[in-house]
Amino acid sequence: MKKFIISLLIVAAFVAIPVSVFAQGEVEGTTLSTVAKANVVNALTLATNTAGGEFGGASLNFGSITPGNTGGSVTMAPTSGTDVGTRTADGTVDLIGDDASCALYTVTGTAGSAYTVTLPSSDVTLTGPTGGTGTSTMTLNTFSINVDGTDAATTGTLTGGSSNFAVGGKLTVASDQIAGAYAGTFNVTVAYN
Asked: Which end of the chain is more exposed for a tag (fewer CB within 10 A), N or C?
């Protein structure tokens, strides 16, 4: 009986082999030639632009101010991609002189390409002198932008391979702000769309 079962399994194996071979031979295939493509563009570069004149462009400069009795804020608003912008104050803050400027930038890359600007989404701290009594930090927020003459635009086109934009913001000033120079840094990012 054992030999019979083994013989039956051997016969079944030989019968299955031709069926699977024939089954594979009956499948038809199709080939499609596909094109692979790539488009290489120039890397984007971002540089500060000093086209704003004597005071600027290389940094967001709120200029000289006095805090007054209650403090307040100073706002730098961009008016074009290449102009220093306008400076206004609220509260008891007084603006001294005209040494203020929005940060001005030039982005270059592949002509005709669109790009996006990303501004800070959180507050930036400017730190000043320490010692004495009073507040030695200021908060910068409410960033604003003008791309090639369009307010609040965060996208632009590299017409001729370049584009300009300006960045402004709002600086909070305490009434007991310690006199001296204050500075802080923030990131501006550009990327192709």
From this structure: N
